[in-house]
Amino acid sequence: MRLFILGSAAGGGFPQWNCLCHVCRLHWSGDPRVTARSQSSIAATADGVHWLLLNASPDLRAQIMASPPLMPSCGADDAARRASPIAAVLVTNGDVDHVAGLLTLREKQAFDLYGTEGVLGVIADNPVYSVMDPACVTTRPVQMEQPFEPVPGLTVEIFPVPGKVPLYLERGEIDVGAEGDMTVGVRLSAGGRTAFYVPGCAFVPEHLAARVAGADVLLFDGTVFVDDEMQRAGVGAKTGRRMGHMPMTGEGGSIDAFDGRDVGDRVYIHINNTNPVLIEGSDERRAVEAAGWRVAHDGMEIVP
Prior knowledge:
The protein is an alpha/beta fold and 304 residues long. The chain has eight helices and 14 strands.
């Protein structure tokens, strides 16, 4: 199994195009301690030929251009005119930063689109996604905890994690932390190795911590360092938890949630532009590294 980080930032990317928070200011001023990141998405393969995208970021075209494994290849069939290694896409929720990139994949390329019935229903209800030709794109609803093989040799299983509906579907009182078909985590396995991808999670219940025990790799929600980070940065009123993302630190944070668990490589992904772990050498970066975590960056490759 081979994992490739296409994008490691949360919605809006880093730096966010209109943001002057402390961390974004460092980038605009050319500070070498920070590196630009695109919006969250990863790719996985078991054979090095057929790739599964996990979430389709709005930055997908640029991500493909920067990722040789996902570029079209002449290969053995020189007559091919549409020849992407991307054979399938799995979306973990309906957030804009996870589904808008599907519009980039509209150019008559055959692939399978996987997701829960709820998330695929949200996509189907938006007429803009009809640009994906159904003669090329096969929509495949998947059930919780039912393994399937979207690309050769790679077994995938989805499971519910605490989350919420996408922002654009919020109406009235919001049930943050609900476990249903609108936010899922993903288990990937091949060659006796196992990886989990959970880019959005409101909190870690015991059954989730137990599920990932023994994993070779855990790619987990690293949106904010502290829950009120956006408020402290002066760029928003919502807490991380209100957005459906638990903080790394503090009471009920993800570092504590997985402390002492039998998990191999721990990597934070989906990192908000306000998160100071983006600053190399910062106290916050050192704190997460001391706790046994790495901070994902675009182009990172992981071979469990």
